[in-house]
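User: Please fill in residues for this 312-position structure.
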């Protein structure tokens, strides 16, 4: 058994029924699950296909090891170990010119949060890792090498943490004594840099952990281009559905969808349109989880599902 296969990749899909229904699946269509993870969405899509095809993508090697087994009953599934930011190259390599639906469930998976060895959680002591792909710069490398100004910017912009300056100072001070190596060590440093009142407002490390995770996994930088690329890969009447989990992701997706649905840009006082611009997409109302889902899975509370249908 390989190192990756020692883990059972568990993920609780959020807005599950809503996201599957949003794709308006045709049995003979071609679909892409950009973040296949534990295979929940992919399995549901594959079950609805008859003559169609599903491309299941994930960058996490532990997810891929699990998906090989869970999706093996479905001959219609092609499994791809890659980052969905490369969707155009992925589809081109498979000889696919256009698809009928794309689903992207953004952010961190339940497995990545709950498996202590992955180093995403401030609830367990583990090496400070946070890499979704298990490749590249780890969280420990980032916080031990980036400058104080860089850390402050990352924590403020990606964590929307107002105590970013004092947290960045505390990190630099602590690493001068010894390298910061574990999740609980990092969480204590963050906690020490915040006033007592702020420590009572949820876990004091939540926003900073989020910011470091987003930075090392490049979750926001390039997301706007990735959304454009996904939309470009759709056939006419194809649908792009994206689940976001925090305001930075959601703002990016909302902005790109607004661009797709933008029509005439002529001044309002023009009697007729002369710009010739037409909307490229119909954008559906964002969907939030209901109270029952939030009660069952607190992590779903901030989730939003946005869907755009390509019309030209």
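Assistant: Residues filled in for all 312 positions:
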């Amino acid at each position: 058994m390989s190192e990756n296969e020692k883990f059972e990749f568990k993920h609780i899909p959020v807005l599950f029924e809503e996201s599957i229904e949003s794709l308006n699946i045709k049995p003979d269509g071609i679909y892409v699950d950009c973040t296949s993870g534990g295979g929940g969405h992919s399995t549901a899509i594959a079950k609805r296909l008859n003559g169609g095809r599903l491309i299941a993508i994930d960058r996490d090697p532990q997810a891929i090891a699990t998906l090989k087994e869970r999706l093996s009953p479905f001959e219609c599934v092609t499994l791809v170990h890659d980052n969905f930011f490369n969707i155009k190259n992925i589809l081109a390599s498979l000889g696919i010119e256009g698809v009928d639906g794309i689903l992207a469930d953004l952010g961190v998976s339940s497995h990545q949060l709950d498996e202590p060895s992955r180093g995403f959680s401030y609830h367990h002591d583990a090496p400070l890792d946070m890499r979704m792909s298990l490749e590249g710069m780890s969280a420990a490398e980032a916080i031990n090498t980036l400058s104080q100004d860089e850390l402050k910017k990352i924590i403020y912009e990606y964590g929307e943490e107002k105590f970013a300056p004092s947290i960045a100072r505390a990190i630099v001070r602590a690493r001068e004594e010894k390298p910061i190596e574990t999740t609980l060590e990092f969480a204590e440093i963050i906690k020490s840099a915040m006033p007592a009142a702020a420590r009572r407002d949820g876990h004091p490390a939540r926003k900073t952990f989020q910011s470091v995770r987003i930075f090392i996994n490049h979750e926001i930088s390039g997301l706007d281009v990735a959304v454009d690329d996904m939309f470009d890969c759709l056939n006419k009447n194809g649908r792009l559905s994206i689940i976001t989990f925090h305001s930075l992701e959601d703002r990016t997706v909302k902005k790109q969808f607004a661009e797709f649905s933008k029509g005439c840009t002529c001044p309002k006082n023009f009697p007729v349109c002369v710009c010739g611009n037409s909307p490229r997409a119909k954008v559906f109302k964002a969907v939030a989880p209901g109270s029952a889902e939030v009660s069952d899975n607190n992590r779903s509370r901030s989730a939003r599902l946005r869907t755009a249908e390509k019309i030209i």
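For context: Residues 164-177 form the longest helix (14 residues).
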